[in-house]
Amino acid sequence: MTPDTRLTPYRLHLHPHESLLLYTDGITEACDANGSQFGEQRLAHALTSAPRRPTAQDVIGALTQAVNAFTAGQGIDDDQAVLVLTATSPHEGLSRP
Length: 97
Fold this sequence. Notes:
The chain is built from three helices and two strands. With 97 residues, the protein is an alpha+beta fold. The termini are far apart.
C-alpha cells in the first residue's frame, strides 16, 4: 500500500452459510517435492471437501489439510494466511432468556 493506492469499494451479499475466502499467495504458490504449485484449481477442489454448510473453521481446516497433504510436510518458504467470513442467519447465535 502506498499513499497513491486507489481502492474501489464493492458490496457483496452472502446468504446464510455462504463464505468469502481471502488468502495470500503463499497458499497457491506452496510447492510439492517436484516444484509444482498448489494453485487455484487445487484450492477450489480443496474447498469441496468442506461440509455442506461449513463454518469458517471448516473451510480453513479443509484448505490447511489439502495444502499440507500437497506439500508433504516440506518447509514453507512464504507466508500463508487465510481469512474466512461466513454469513449466519439473523437469528443464529441469539440466546433467549
